[in-house]
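Box S2. Input/output pair 1.
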Amino acid sequence: MKKTILFAMICFAAVSCDKKDEATPQVELKTTSVPYRQLTTVAASGEDLKVDLREVNDSRCPKNVVCVQMGSAQIKFNVSDGKEQTDVSLTFKGDRKTDFQTFTLGGENFVLSVSEVLPYPDTNESPKLEDYKVNVSIEKK
C-alpha cells in the first residue's frame, strides 16, 4: 500500500513539473517615430490617433561630456482622435519607469510612452528642432 501511494505521488510530481509556464504573453507595443511638426498616425489599442510633436526642449548631457546630471528633454505633443484633441507634456529622462504620461481623449484613458528622443545632443552643435524625432507608443488604459 505504501508503495502504491509513493508511486502515485511520484507520478503526480512528474506530471506537475512537466507543465510549461502558461503565463499570459505580454503584448509588445509598437513604437512609432514622430518627426517634429509632422502629423503622424499612431496605433493605440485598435484606434488610430494623430500625434503632432509640438515642442522639444532638450537639456540632456551631450555625447562625450561628463555631466553632474544627465539632463532631460521636455516634450509636448498634440494628440487627436479626429473629433477631439488634447496636449500631452512629459519629461524624458531615458528611464522606462518615468517616461510616460496618462491622458484622456474622448472619454477614454490612454498612456503615451516615449522610448527614444533623437538626435542625441553632441558637443559640436545643438540639433535643430526640425531634426528631432521621438519614438512613442500609445495604449488604452
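Box S3. Input/output pair 2.
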Amino acid sequence: MSADHSHACACCAEVHEGPPLSYGAPAPVGWKPRYARRRDSELTPDLCMIKGRHFYVHGLIEIPVRDSGETFAWGVWVSLSETNFARMHDLWEDPAREQEPPYFGWLSTELPLYPDSTLLLKTHVLTQAVGRRPLIELEPTDHPLAVEQREGITMDRVREFADALLRG
C-alpha cells in the first residue's frame, strides 16, 4: 500500500493531497450503451430509466472516516419503483422535496472491494436539498458495506480503496 496519494478532483479539477474521498459508478449495473438509442431508456447524471420498466436514482452512501473527521462517499445507483421514481422526478427541482419520506430501493451498483456482492442490498433513499444528491442508507445488516456505513472506516481503509481503484 502506498503511503501518500494526490489526485485530480473530478468535480473541480484541482489537485488535492491525500486519497480521494469518493468514487462513483457512471450508470446502474443493468445499463448498456446501446440503450441510449432507445426512446424508452435514458441515462442522466442523476436518473436512469431502462426500457421503460427499470428506474434508478444516483445517490451517495456516506461513511464516516473515524480518524480524520472526514466523510467518504460511494456514488451508487439505487432502483426505485415506477411510482417512487415518478414522484422523485416530479419533485426534482422543488424545494419541498426535502420533506419527502425515504423511498425504498435496491442497490444497483457492484462495489468490487467487498467480499460479498453489494447488488440488491436493501436501501432507503433520503432526498436532499435541490442540487444535492440523495443519501442512501443501507438496511442494517452484517454486510461489510452496511457495517462500514454504521461504524465508519479509517484513513487506512480509504487508502486501500485508492490503491485498489487508482492503481489497479
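Caption for Box S3: The chain has a mean pLDDT of 92. Strands lie at 6-8, 15-17, 22-24, 42-43, 47-50, 54-64, 71-80, 103-107, 122-126, 135-138.
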